[in-house]
Amino acid sequence: IVIHCSYTGISIHAPPRTEKMAVDQDWSSVYPTAAAFKPASVPLPIRMGYPVKRGVPPPKEGNLELIKIPNFLHLTPPAIKKHCAALKDFCTEWPSALDSDEKCEQHFPIEIETVDYVSAGTSIRNPKARVVTLRVKLSNLNLDDHAKKKLIKLVGDRYCKDTDMLTITTDRCPLRRQNYDYSIHLLTVLYHESWKTEMWESEKTEEDMEEYIWENSCSQKNALDTLLRIKASENVSNVTEEELLASEVVKNYRNSVIALKNEGETENNVSQYKESVKKLLNIQALP
Amino acid sequence: MKWEVHEGEHGVVTLVLSLKMQVSISDEPETLYKRLSLLVKGHDKAVLDSYEYFAVLAAKELGISVEKVHKPPKKIERLTLLKSVHIYKKHRVQYEMRTHYMCLELKYLTSSTAAVYLEYVQRNLPEGVAMEVKKTKIEKIPEHIQEPVWDTLPQVEETEVKS
């Protein structure tokens, strides 16, 4: 409050409000909402700005820097606690049965990820907000062996083998709800198509197989061939193929070859293969 | 909504219109959010630090578990322009825009809790600060994917495809 006499030009300023403030006053009534910094209402001796030469930063009276920067005077801890106490009625409890990630996954296998954007500008819309990402683990879907392999082939890059996670990202529709519906539609179509067996699927060759199958492969043929010839040269009575296949050494050889082809070459696998070949061809003497 | 008498400082008595918020309960099942990730971007680190304190305290008061709060490194975008309007190519001026980030990850929220928290936190976003909220919703597998539909459909005779 200023009392100004226009004749003499004298102004008498009233003392600022800070002088009359009690130490234990209710601060949330001084700054109930976000407001600019008022030096006469804030009883703190703040200085801000670049210091004068061999001096201190300018005081708070008439300090533009303090007015420009956003202040959090309306969000002191007691004020936040008051707000949260009033808002607590509108919150609901998380179900206590779902306290770990694994349980969430078991009961709710599908995860939908959406992003919201908040920023200041002429428009509140953001075109990136319509993207929807759907993630699901294939082990949670009702798929049999053939359906799972067909789904993985159909989906291509969107499947990650290490985490067994199928990720579908949609943003071809203009609205988020449309994108979500489209992703669910894609999942439904993929699921049903993978259960179907087309006529041309019987023409699947060895190159298309995802994993190595020993039965009816050249490795099996060669091994049986060799064993039969060994037996013939020793003049043993005719041993049938089924007996050979059921024997321990051939089974060992089969397991080691499958491990080598599917898992790649590791120390373990290669030494296992060596042992099984030695047993198969009866050459124990070599180191 | 009704008028209430409020006693202020220095014996000032005012009439205040009080709005008590009404809680309404609806029957539809809540959607569950496994994770809520808030990424806050701003030009001033001190503002983001204060905002982080506010957001973390608000989450604790509302009973939301905070998984982690981390600060990704800042990104600086620099551009070099000519200092003068007409010639003087050798004299340039450089500007830079610094964007600081702060990421807040919350776990296990229901849709009403998430709506309340997000509205509170977004209404108190300071000027010049932007936010991206990534929500991860969890859902059950819909009924039409439980069983393949080919088992239930009636047998359709295969028609010859004319080539």
UniProtKB/TrEMBL annotation, chain A:
GO biological process: mitochondrial translation
Gene Ontology CC, one term: mitochondrial small ribosomal subunit
Pfam family, one: MRP-S28
Organism name: Buteo japonicus
Molecular-function annotations in GO: structural constituent of ribosome
PANTHER family per the UniProt record, alphabetical: MITOCHONDRIAL 28S RIBOSOMAL PROTEIN S28 (PTHR13490), SMALL RIBOSOMAL SUBUNIT PROTEIN MS35 (PTHR13490:SF0)
Name this polypeptide is given: Mitochondrial ribosomal protein S35
Source species, domain of life: Eukaryota
Domain Small ribosomal subunit protein mS35 mitochondrial conserved: 124-196
Entry-linked InterPro entries: Ribosomal_mS35_mit, Ribosomal_mS35_mt
Cleavable signal peptide: none
TrEMBL record, chain B:
GO biological process: translation
Single GO molecular function: structural constituent of ribosome
Stored SUPFAM superfamilies: Ribosomal protein S10
GO CC terms of this entry: mitochondrial small ribosomal subunit
HAMAP family (alphabetical): Ribosomal_uS10 (MF_00508)
InterPro entries: Ribosomal_uS10, Ribosomal_uS10_dom, Ribosomal_uS10_dom_sf, Ribosomal_uS10m
Keywords on record: Mitochondrion, Ribonucleoprotein, Ribosomal protein
Keyword RNA-binding belongs to the record: no
Family as reported in the entry's similarity comment: Belongs to the universal ribosomal protein uS10 family.
Lineage, highest ranks first: Eukaryota, Metazoa, Chordata, Craniata, Vertebrata
Subcellular location as annotated: Mitochondrion
Species of the source: Buteo japonicus
Keyword Ribosomal protein attached: yes
Domain Small ribosomal subunit protein uS10: from-to ranges: 37-134
PANTHER family (UniProt xref): MITOCHONDRIAL 28S RIBOSOMAL PROTEIN S10, SMALL RIBOSOMAL SUBUNIT PROTEIN US10M
One Pfam family linked to the record: Ribosomal_S10
Official protein name in the record: Small ribosomal subunit protein uS10m
Entry-linked SMART domains: Ribosomal_S10 (SM01403)
